[in-house]
Amino acid sequence: MTSRTRRTRQLGPARVLTGRERRWINPNRGLVKLFERNLDMIVSRFLYPHLSRVWNPYSWLLERRFVVTGASVSPSGWPRNLDPLRVLLISDIHTGIFLHPQTLGDLVESLMDLEPDLVAIAGDIVTGHSSEVRPFLDALAPLSRAPLGAWYGHGNHDYFGGDPEELRRDLRSAGITTLNNVSVVLAHGGGQFVLGAIDDLIFGKPDWPHLLSQEGTPHLLLAHNPDHFYEAEGRGVPLTLSGHTHGGQIRFPGGPPIIRHSRFCLDEGVFAFRSSLLVVTRGLGSVGLPWRWGADPEAILLEIVPRP
Question: What is the pTM of this model?
C-alpha cells in the first residue's frame, strides 16, 4: 500500500452530545456481553483456525478498503504552548488468524510515511489470546519510530486468554510501551503534555485515582471503550481516544451499526460534551467474522492544535 493508492477521508466537526444518548440494551453488561465474549473465544480459538486454511478473506479486504482518516481538533484545556501534535490513532488490530503479518507490516510502513509525532494504539491488539501478537511484532515495530513513541492501552480482548503481562513484555520488545492506569509526561515543541491510559471498562480494572495520581489529569487519554468518555470528562480530561466499536463493522449505507458496542451511541467519529472531546476510530481489524461492510477499516491521523 503506497501513498499513491491510499484511500482517505476527512472527519467533520464534532457531534455535540447532550449526555442523554442511550441504547435500550447496555452492551457492556449482562447476558449480551457474556454471550459475545464466549462466542468470540470459541470462534477465534477453535473454529476459524481450521477455516482459515481454506477461507481467510480479511487480509485481502484490508489491502483494498483500508482508509486513512484525517481530523483536526482544538480541545479546551490543551496546553497552549505546544506546537501542533500529529497523533496516529490505531485500534482493534486483532492480530490472529484473520491477518497476515506481511499485510500488516506493509500497512504499518505506509502509515509511518505520514510522519506522526506519536502513535496511540487504543487496545485489542489480539483477538483470543495474548500470544497471538508474537508473529506480528516485526510488523508492529516501525510504529516505535514516531519521535514521541508508540503507546498502548488495554482493550477487552487483551483479557480473553493468556497473560496480559506477557502481552506487555512482547510489545515492549517491539518498542511499544503499555500504559495501564498510569500516565507519563511528554515534551513537545517547547512545552509538555500528559499522556495516560485507563484500563478496559469491561474486563479490566479501571483505576482513576491511581491514574490521576501519576502526573495529574492527562491531557490525552487512551480509553479502549468510548463509554469511558463521560467519566473522563468529569475528571477534566480534554481529549480521549477510543476504539472498540469497529464503527459497527457491518452497517448499511447511511444506516445504524449492526453490531453496537457503545451504550452511549459513540460509534465512530468526533464527539463533544461540555469542554471535552472524544475521537472514536473504526479500528483496523475484524472480529467474529473476517469481513467488514459499510464501516471500512481505518487509522486516524489526528492533528491537535492549541486554541489561540
Answer: 0.93
